[in-house]
Amino acid sequence: MESNGKQYHIQLERGDVGKYVLLPGDPGRCEPISRLFDNPKHVATNREYVTYTGTLDGVPVSVTSTGIGCPSAAIALEELVRCGADTFIRVGTSGHIQKDIRSGELAIISAAIRDEGTSRHYMPIEFPAIADIDVVLALQAAAKKTGAVHRTGITQSKDSFYGQHEPERMGVAKDLLERWKAWEIGGALCSEMEASALFVIASMLRVRAGGVMMVHAKEPMPPLDILLETAVQGLRELIAADKAAGRSVTL
Amino acid sequence: MKQYHTQTELGEVGRYVLMPGDPGRVPLIAARLENAVHIATNREYVTYTGWLEGEKVSVTSTGIGCPSSAIAVEELYRSGADTFIRVGTSGSLQPGTKSNDLAVVTGAIRHEGTSSHYMPIEFPAVCDLEIVQAMRSAVERLGVRYQVGISHSKDSFYGEVEPERSANSEQLKDLWRAWQIGGAICSEMEISTICIVSSILRARAGGIMAMHGEGEFGPLDGLIVAAVESVRDLIKMDKAKAA
To answer: Is the ipTM of this complex over 0.85?
Structure first.
């Protein structure tokens, strides 16, 4: 669906974005992230979708907010792919599941629990939500360079923020508590609200997606700087690896 | 104390275990290890243990299907193993696949009953990243044809190869189309459960498969060499990390 030649929701067209896109949830984080690019320019704002495009090592890169939740994140991904983007890093904050994680640690996401409704509109529930291995490796290399404390693993992608934080209030309290325990037993690191749909849709569209989250545990959250720096360095690592492999880095 | 089904005990298996489905393939794989000896045979579980790069490496068959594979992982873990690498044959889902092309598996579709006894269905069956890296480096070095991606782990062989015979044939065909759309590369019967059980045990799981595709399916030597070389690369990676 298009309006005036632009994608319906994100209000972008081919040429507006690079192949490499960072995906924060919060529209307010796009401008600060764009300042880590060279020559950043605001491209579009519509609903919760804010986009800036700049360059890294001379290669066009973008940042587009997804809004909260898989429904709006799915739209962002679909429409960005139609604008030519093919490599995505979700960047944002998350809650902790493993009890030994401390606030400020980064979780590099290898796969996601599909505890949400959107990805079922794309693929049966048995299908795994898996991050692209090259994006994961790039983020691991990036975290080493930025010096971020990090680990790699699974995230829970949920539809209800308050269902996680105040489960006892809910009509399905017992179910929510039991499932949280299951995710803990399974080794999931963190909990956020977009990765699973991004990964399933990326599989279908044959594009690459991954994610890096700062985890909020018991302690107060530190500033997000090292998260944003790591995500941007992740794009640099991907661009360098793609160049080395002879893969085109521009549209 | 010997484990109930695999009849192995602590010390008899290595940290690394190659897991074919077919017990008949265990000695063929073990022959590629150094100084491999037969450890146990019980039911569909045959175990040999040998060496690679100075590390103890075992081969244990799982039998066909997730129920017997879950038992193998559980009991091998209790015998000292923590790295499980499935090696076997599979169907293919993507066009252009030629017979004996290798599939390096990154994760699996949980189209089976066993893994739901361990974790809710929303939880992903994901392979260990280091194993995937080791496999990729091994197949690149060997210069063989390969794909990297998701495996379909199913409970019914004939439901896949002859779906029209099943009462729910339309559903099976619709799902097969879904897995193709999703980009799954191969179809076999064990990896999803091996991954899920490994997640719970905080162990590592992976899989490398020889796919049936266009043309005659040939001998499995290429698959077995790639699997053994993958373990070799993984051992080197683990040693470098520990150093």
So the answer is: no
